[in-house]
Amino acid sequence: MELCDWSQVAISLKMLNNNDLLKRLIKGKMAMNMKTRLDIPVRRMMLAVVVSVGAALTGCSEMTGVMNDLQTMTTSNLPKQGIAQPINKTAVSSQIKGASKTDLVGLVGWFENSCGFDPVSYTEGTKENQVQKRFDAFQESFMAKQYKADGSYTAYVKPDYRSKLPANYREAVKNISVVEDSKGVHYYVDFNNATYRGYDLSRLELFYQPESDYVYDTLYFKNANFVELKSVFKTTSDELDELRGGEFDAKSRSVMCYLGL
Question: Which label site among 134, 138, 161, 177 has the fewest CB atoms less than 10 Å from its CB?
Fold first, then answer.
């Protein structure tokens, strides 16, 4: 009888760590020689395999063949390990960033509270009042005037506004600009991955007409389905019995709050 390299046999058996694989082998070459129960611990099963195989096979070449089968079956079912696959960190980062959106209800939620005319918005200590104060601070972080000798002024955006924006909403602000025309002064806040109750926002416009009370703020949405928010927006009658609340415009995909008297 040939002498076998039992170290190779031991290596192959060590790799056998799955009972299901052993069952498949037994149903094949050693079905007639193995009568060991398959529900015993794996370490004892390995010993049974050595004894049974040694008794059943007549030469080292046949033993080697079985061991090769064992090794092939186990390694082919093991998870691939070793060489790590390259990861495009830039692509992963952009995907994560693209999926991350900031909801601005905590900043412009006063729109739905009758455009800030609901008494709860200016009642100290309420959540709605905190939103109003947060928005006031937001405006102050970027709106400014450069006065001239004749008393007139030019509106501008504070150059260091980004560092003064509320930390929770800083990433949602893409850019802030100002435009002066015959109508008045328009501040535009362009958003980046911002939503209002899950509905994508594109920009916020803050408008005022110098030397008058004609003031309004407008939220612009990206999609026409923003009109589904109508039921959330409340209306209130002010001291002059004027109805106050957000005005929806499907054509421009916007909600406008008129803030003048």
Answer: 177
CB 119 within 8 A of CB 253: no
Please state the domain extents for the chain: 6-77, 102-258
Task: Give percent helix, percent strand, percent coil of the chain, each to the nearest 5.
Answer: 40, 25, 35
pTM score over 0.70: no
Structure token digits, residue 150: 């004749």
Which has the closest alpha carbon to 236: 122, 153, 156? Answer: 122
3-class SS letters over 232-260? HCEEEECCCCCEEECEEECCCCEEEEECC
What confidence tens digit (pLDDT) does each residue in 193-248 have?
999 999 999 999 999 999 899 999 999 999 999 999 999 999 999 888 889 999 99
Secondary structure element (H or E) that encloses residue 76, with its range: helix 60-77
Q: Residue 203: which H helix or E strand, with range? A: strand 199-208
